[in-house]
């Protein structure tokens, strides 16, 4: 899938963080397509988890500072994704690398980002937030 300018919320820092999460998913999909997924899956899960949580803190702080009307909903959606990522991590720890589950991770991230940005994060676009 990947980044599209339609996902821009008008805040350079947040947009760049969104781009990075898309890139992580895209790079991992390329590794899967090249049969290198097994070698990088564990690290991707760790990186994705820590990066998204750091991003969520930035985004939540921006929404709180602007008194964004969807700030609480945003935080709830973030927690849901953290739980989903934990599920992928748990399955990996229990069963090892599973190619189908790894592709599901990429698709989940792409869909979640696109849906979340368009339905929740776009509220930042109309607010006066600092880049």
Radius of gyration: 15 Å
- Note the run of SSEs as H and E: HHHH
Give unreliable regions as ranges.
Answer: none
Largest sheet: none
Count of discrete alpha- or pi-helical segments spanning 4 or more residues? 4
Shape: elongated
Helix content: over 70%
Write structural notes for this entry.
The chain has 131 residues and is mainly α. The protein contains four helices and no strands. The chain starts with 11 loop residues before the first helix and ends in a 12-residue tail after the last helix. The model has no long low-confidence stretch (mean pLDDT 91).
Please describe the structure with a list of short key phrases separated by commas or semicolons:
single chain; 131 residues; mainly alpha; 4 helices; 74% helix; 0% strand
Question: TL;DR of this structure?
Answer:
The chain is mostly helical. 74% of the residues lie in helices and 0% in strands.
């Amino acid at each position: 899938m990947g980044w599209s300018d339609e996902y821009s919320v008008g805040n350079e820092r947040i947009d760049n963080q969104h781009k990075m999460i898309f890139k992580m998913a895209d790079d991992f999909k390329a590794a899967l397509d090249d049969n290198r997924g097994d070698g990088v899956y564990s690290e991707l899960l760790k990186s994705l988890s820590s990066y998204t949580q750091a991003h969520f803190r930035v985004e939540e702080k921006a929404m709180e500072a602007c008194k964004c009307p969807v700030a609480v909903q945003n935080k709830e959606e973030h927690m849901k994704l953290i739980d989903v990522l934990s599920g992928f991590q748990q399955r990996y720890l229990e069963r090892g690398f599973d190619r189908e589950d790894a592709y599901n991770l990429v698709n989940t991230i792409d869909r979640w980002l696109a849906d979340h940005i368009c339905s929740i994060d776009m509220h930042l676009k109309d607010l006066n937030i600092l880049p």
